[in-house]
Amino acid sequence: MLNPAPTDHPVHELIQQRFSPKAFLKRAVDPATLQSLLEAARWAPSSFNEQPWAFIVATSDRPEDFERLLACLVPGNQSWAGQAPVLMLTVAKLAFDRNGRPNRHALHDIGLASAQLALEATGRGLAAHFMAGFDAEHARGTYDIPEGFEPVAAVAVGYPDKPEAPPGETREAGFAPRRRKPLKDFVFARKWGESAALAT
Ligand SMILES: Cc1cc2nc3c(=O)[nH]c(=O)nc-3n(C[C@H](O)[C@H](O)[C@H](O)COP(=O)(O)O)c2cc1C
What we know:
The protein is α+β, with helices and mostly antiparallel strands. It is 29% helix and 15% strand.
């Protein structure tokens, strides 16, 4: 495992293995693998089974397409995500197909689909690194994304590599520490803010 999560309780190894790398091997992701990642997203649950997600995909073997997606990212993300072999942009449909009303759970559902994609990627030795750092209006213009659809996140996908080492350190030391809030900070019972007994 490259950069495992130091969990407080046991979890499935896919969850322990998943992380957001900033370094990728120079190895292409074959189309069948990419199809499986998107298939994993496809089978996410969604409110009323509306599947309010779309994925725009660009691979580095098509440099013109890749550069178009890369140009949507903020410079701080372009610097590392440009090394990944695959970039994606997730887009949510904000209203229900069934009645045109606002779908309050569209972002929830695209998050679930994205999580499934990330775990499928992890299971295949790949990693998906999500990014809020992109220009949504630039993306809307680049891809003619219609009104009623919201660009949500960019994603870099590839085979993770060890980061460059700080001077005098091993390459493993280049990984950012994995940190999370403890369960007691966000698992409540009886009253908002009151930690559930099982979380203390
Ligand atoms: C919606 C979303 C937006 C994010 N935006 C960025 C980003 O713009 N740039 C970046 O380097 N990482 C970004 N991240 C990665 C997070 O910083 C990362 O998931 C978090 O630090 C936890 O690390 P881990 O994924 O390795 O467990 C984003 C993650 C998510 C889910």
